[in-house]
Amino acid sequence: MTDVVSAAWLADRLGDVRLVDVRDAWEFDGIGHLPGAASIPFDEFRSADGDVGMLPGRDVWEDLLSAAGISAGDDIVAYDDMHGVFAARFLVTALLYGHDPEKLHLLDGDFSAWNQQYETTSEASDLPEATYDVTDPEKSPLVDFETVDAALDDDEVVIVDTRDPDEFDDGHLPGAVNLDWRELVDDETRGLKPRKELDAILDAAGLTPDRRIVLYCNTARRISHTYVVLSHLGYEHVEFYEGSLTEWEARDGRIVEE
């Protein structure tokens, strides 16, 4: 399962993992980055054909990871400076393109948390030569419009809207529960809240490990973070509606306003 790792965990393994920095290129160069990290800005791994939030395409993904010195068998640790939400989108994209979920890790607390404890650098990283080959995942969490529409009438499914409460009130899928992805993050540490707090928050929202869970937001960025967190916590029945509200509204899906 894709997991969340501490700065201390990463510090002990810097030479054994491939680091991906998804911040803007000017931040990578100007502010500095983790030693050995490759820069793959968020905008580079989103679809360029107008489908905001959608996958970039197999060829684009292979080129990006090959240029970053990453091979299909590598352990990858991704980070950003936004509590992990952009880095999580990178990791879910890797998962959907067949990377082993056991080799995908989100840095807990993002760049700022690392910077408080360990050294960063502005020097260019010496990246190895690599050829990345996309494969089909053994099991994909992706679900489509029709699957989500059918799930609305299934009492065994929890539909989760990971946007903020104001967005939720403006319009959401019928029966959805609102769990703002930021509720799982500690603003002070910039990382995940303690396990007991996470369990209490998730339980209050009806998200228990035995339930089938379907996640959506607007463009699949925020659900990526929630997906990674639930995976890290051992949830096995989590589905990822990548089209989210962008597709849902375009296809006249049912919407409830509060």
From TrEMBL:
Question: What GO molecular function terms would the record report?
Answer: thiosulfate-cyanide sulfurtransferase activity
Which keywords, in A-to-Z order, does the entry hold?
Repeat, Transferase
Please name the PROSITE patterns in this protein's record: RHODANESE_1 (PS00380), RHODANESE_3 (PS50206)
**Cited SUPFAM superfamilies:** Rhodanese/Cell cycle control phosphatase
* InterPro entries the UniProt entry points to: Rhodanese-like_dom, Rhodanese-like_dom_sf, Thiosulfate_sulfurtransferase, Thiosulphate_STrfase_CS
Is Lipoprotein tagged as a keyword? no
Q: Where is the Rhodanese domain?
A: 13-123, 153-257
- Say which domain of life the source belongs to: Archaea
The chain's coiled-coil residues are: none
Specify the protein name. Answer: Thiosulfate sulfurtransferase
Q: In which organism is this protein found?
A: Haloferax elongans ATCC BAA-1513
